[in-house]
Amino acid sequence: MATRQGGKDSPSASTDRVQRNLKTRHVTMIALGGCIGTGLFMTSGSTIAKAGPGGALVAYAAMGLMVYFLMTSLGELATHLPTSGSFAAYNARYVDPALGFAMGWNYWLNWAITVAVDISTAALLIQYWLPHTPGWVWSLLVLVVIFLINALTVSTFGETEFWLSLIKVVTVIVFLAIGLAMICGIMFRPAVGLGNFTYKDAPFVGGFPAILNVFLIAGFSFQGTELIGVTAGESENPGKAVPKAINDVFWRILLFYILSIFVIAALIPYTSPNLLSSAEGDIAMSPFTLVFQRAGLASAASVMNAIILTSVLSSANSGVYASTRMLYALAKDHYAPAFFGHTTRHGIPMASLVATLVVSLATFAASIFGQRIYMWLVAASGLTGFIVWIGIALSHYRFRRAWVVQGHRVEELRYHAKLFPLGPILALILCIIVIGGQNIEAFVNWNWQEIGVTYISVPLVLALYLGYKIRYHTRIVPLKEMDLSGDPESL
């Protein structure tokens, strides 16, 4: 197996490689925006309804800590070896080539399917203003726009994500400013205070089971943060951009999630039915919409619909980018047909881009003509994010151990994760708990269909892993034999 290093290929393929044209501000804002999705705008309210304000804060804080450790692990790997293959390449090099194969293909399929879900959601959001227009037209239009953005240059993608993410960031900051002002009675009187934190059974409602349930929901809110590892392969200066983005993860989580949950819980009692309605996709019931309305913004629902639409467009745009680059990297590592590794003169892997959009389009068609197939396709991508996170934690743990075994010092690394080995071990355990706890009730009732729908991504990854392992007789890479060479351009 040939392993790529930092976007560099063999001399004969020197023209077929991606270009490092993502600026530090692009990478930083992509990482920033990756934490803010429809989960924050819509489902954050339901977590308060289910576990109370205290339970929601504990769950998001615990999940946020896990994501922080994961991102610092990924930061150490990505600054040492920045590559578009990211965690799949690290799985292959630092754990087992078969694991790299399984993770790469599974991640590509996950995002290709998710893009189809995103364009369907975008159509529903557009129909909020234009209810009598056909949704499929808007979905296809969004897909064409996403294709054009990703087909030009990587800097076009970066610039688009920069502005889409900026809209989300500004929205959250304005929300927090207005919310805190309402709590304290500044400009909005009387002061709301913190009475809702002790209202009825608050702050903790439903005990530990409720917190665990919210913990699972919170995990999905952070999906996509691993995209920072993929962007490292096309960053102008990964040694600077990636650590900067990673180091900001903690503050992003604190500001955007913990503070937002605090403000929502203070302003809206956990017993409000609106909090559960928002999780069902009712824009008018979004906690953000309700707070803006109380502040006097008459068109709050329309404004939030537009902002959530930018969030969905950002997710689709990032999904196409991530899956395209993963398929490109799989080809470079001889895990996929070689033509997927060819790029245009602007460094765009066009064959990989087209293949990704074909799968997205087929999934979208299934949502219209074959609901049962569509349900299983979406289920197959459900737990991929957590499985990828397990791979990141494993790769970092083995990389750092091999680094020491082979006589290196931690100080030699461009960036090194804090609290090793606690960080990756804690992240690994929590990811396994989250995956196992997705649908415990299905196991209690032995509902095989529910078990299949919930956990199908787990046997899918195992089948890919074992199939490749049996076919090519791979083995777990011994620590002393591990290739620890990095990319000199990142140092």
TrEMBL record:
> Can you tell me where the transmembrane regions are?
27-48, 54-71, 108-130, 136-154, 166-188, 208-228, 249-271, 291-316, 350-369, 375-399, 419-440, 446-468
Keyword terms of this UniProt record = Amino-acid transport, Membrane, Transmembrane, Transmembrane helix, Transport
User: Where in the cell?
Assistant: Membrane
Name of protein:
Amino acid permease
Answer yes or no on keyword Repeat.
Answer: no
All copies of the Amino acid permease/ SLC12A domain together span 26-475
Q: Which PANTHER family match?
A: AMINO ACID PERMEASE, GENERAL AMINO-ACID PERMEASE GAP1
- The domain of life is Bacteria
Q: How does it sit in the membrane?
A: Multi-pass membrane protein
- Gene3D superfamilies the record matches: Amino acid/polyamine transporter I
List the Pfam families.
AA_permease (PF00324)
